[in-house]
Amino acid sequence: MKAATQHAATTQPCHSHRLSRVSSLLSQCELRLAPSLDSYPGGKDATLALKGDHHRWNASLALQLAHTWLCKQGVLTAAEGTSGKVAELPTTVDSSADGVALAPSFTVSPLMQIALASCVWPGRSQVIERPGITYYVDGAHTPESTQACADWFSVAAGKCTPGCPRVMIFNCGGDRDAAALLQPYAALHAGGLPFTHAAFCPNVVSQKRSYTDQSNMMVSAVCLDQQPEKARSAWLQLTADGAPGLDLGICSKLCFRRGGYAQIRFLIIPEPRKK
Question: What is the value of pTM for the model shown?
Answer without folding.
Answer: 0.70
